[in-house]
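ok new one. same drill as before - structure tokens go in, u give me an amino acid for every spot. 172 of them this time. try not to just spam alanines like last time pls lmao
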């Protein structure tokens, strides 16, 4: 895949990141939970997505965009999550790039960033509504650490009784 770049987020990326975030979350929303997803989208935009520089800056994290041929293909964020850990957040890939191997490049890049920052473990979570992501993280060497049913909504989960899976990978 030529013409791919992974680089730090810049303010001009805001509109495209916002649009992809909304698109993917609407795509994930089961028909009986569309209202819950719309509330989650609004909450996440206000708390995080519409203020990426501040959100990740306040947490000593980083946010990365992936471009292919000059257009946004995906993105992900990283933030400290505890002693020696960083959390992978918002790893989203535009539908037309799925199955291209780009997600593997993204996770590898994220792992390199985590190591470069001196952290030894990467943690992440995803939901039961994302079976392809569950398989991807397992294939990438992540170990299931725990499961939970998320009842309350916040900028990290829709809530509403959706099962969440928490994974980790030691990078040392």
């Amino acid at each position: 895949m030529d013409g791919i770049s992974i680089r730090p987020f810049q303010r001009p990326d805001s509109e495209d990141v916002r649009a992809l975030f909304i698109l993917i979350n609407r795509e994930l929303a089961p028909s009986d939970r569309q209202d819950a997803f719309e509330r989650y989208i609004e909450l996440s935009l206000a708390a995080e997505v519409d203020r990426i520089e501040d959100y990740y800056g306040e947490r000593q994290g980083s946010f990365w965009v992936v471009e292919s041929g000059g257009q946004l293909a995906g993105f992900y964020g990283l933030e400290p999550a505890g002693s020696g850990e960083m959390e992978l957040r918002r790893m989203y890939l535009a539908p037309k790039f799925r199955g291209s191997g780009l997600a593997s490049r993204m996770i590898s890049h994220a792992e390199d960033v985590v190591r470069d920052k001196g952290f030894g473990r990467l943690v992440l979570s995803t939901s039961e509504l994302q079976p392809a992501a569950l398989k991807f993280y397992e294939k990438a060497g992540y170990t299931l650490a725990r499961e939970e049913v998320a009842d309350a909504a916040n900028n990290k989960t829709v809530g509403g009784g959706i099962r969440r899976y928490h994974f980790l990978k030691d990078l040392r």
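Residues 106 and 133 are 13 Å apart (CA to CA). and btw The radius of gyration is 15 Å.
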